[in-house]
Amino acid sequence: MLKKLTSEVNHFKSQSHNFKILVLTNVVYALVQPVIDIFVAAYIMRNSNDTSKVVIYQLAIYTGIPLTFLLNGLLLKYFNIRKLYSLGMMLSGVSMIIMMSLKNLDLIGIGVAGMTMGLSFGLYWSNRDYLALSITDDENRNYYYGLETFFYTIIAIVVPATIGWFIQSKTGADSKHGAYVIITGVVFVITMLASVVCFRGRFENPIQKKYIFFKFHPLWNKLLSLAMFKGLAQGFLVTAPAMLIFKILGEEGELGKAQSIGAILAAIIIYFIGRFSKPSDRIKTFSAGLILFAIGACLNAALFNKTGVIMFLLLLLIAKPLMDLAYYPIQLRVIDIVSKIEKRGEFTYILNHEAGLYLGRLLGAGTFLVLYFAVSEDVALRYAVGIIALLQLCSIFISKNIIAQGNKIAPEEPAEGVVDEKVLEETATNLV
């Protein structure tokens, strides 16, 4: 066991300096992700008891993200990418400070806090996506995302449970609000620490070219449709667990416990899939994640009780990292291919990709809000996730088509140390 662990540590050490720094930066920042994703939604629920406000907050975030992707492209002409990346992480703490300072959770205040968080996410994700693209290649991207997801999943055990316990240990509305304020302060400190780690990297800005286009290669248009389906779930899936737990399971302590179920097993599975899977295995990984998500969502819709919610969260805990582990390498490989064909900078595609996600997010959040206002809150919580999960199954067929077309344009190269039998045969024939 020790020998195997040492081997994995040595494998990580063998990666490039920027690879290691990017992973470490994202792992430190991952400590605040559960707070941002889950407990801000829980805070809105606690103080308003209105799930529509949670979704509106999420829409404000998702409106700010694509605008900031565009702004980031301009800022990269004047500022080093490390500064913008760090600023994005620290702004998430600022957004939480704005939220905690609101005396009444009205739509304007929620919108301002949401747009600020969108600004944070836009700077963080646009720069993170570019750096992940620039420091990895198709052969080590499964490992990169598997390693990150392993740490994220472990953190998803400790942080929600710890924060849930901390909030539950307080009695009275004022004490619980004070607990959220303390958590916000800790978040801000952690984002500063992540920024310090980031500055140890030797990251270079993208080569500046024109990055706004309206016509793209057909392969890229297919990826945009895949991005739209991914965005469908993102529309409110980030906050859906908090809404379901708060409505059905109870308090934040229950939320932390539910998020921890099965996380250790999921983390180990994801790490080894990322470590040892090949690019050709991505469809299997992606399909498994989508099917597990659909099963969990359908169980929640069928049962709509504590058992259904826990089963949904357990399956989601495994499904989401599986989907991400496959999706991001597929996206980056397509960028590798089409950027060479169209002779455009990679950031062009990172920016344009956000448009596909945004359209999906609007449709996903819109599905929830239509059911909420037209029928009822319970119907929206019960069926919206299921509808979206079943629609997302279309992604399996789209991704297969994307990979097949991509391999025709740019066939996968054999992994390092692996001999291509066809090349070997041709070489032997020529020697004879």
From TrEMBL:
Membrane-spanning regions, if any?
A: 21-44, 56-75, 84-102, 108-125, 145-167, 179-203, 223-246, 258-274, 286-304, 310-330, 351-374, 380-398
Q: Which SUPFAM superfamilies match?
A: MFS general substrate transporter
Which InterPro entries does the annotation name?
MFS (IPR011701), MFS_trans_sf (IPR036259)
- Can you say what this protein is called? MFS transporter, YQGE family, putative transporter
Record's Pfam families?
A: MFS_1
Q: Does the keyword Membrane apply?
A: yes
Organism, as annotated:
Flavobacterium noncentrifugens
Molecular-function GO term, any one: transmembrane transporter activity
**What does the UniProt keyword field contain?**
Membrane, Transmembrane, Transmembrane helix
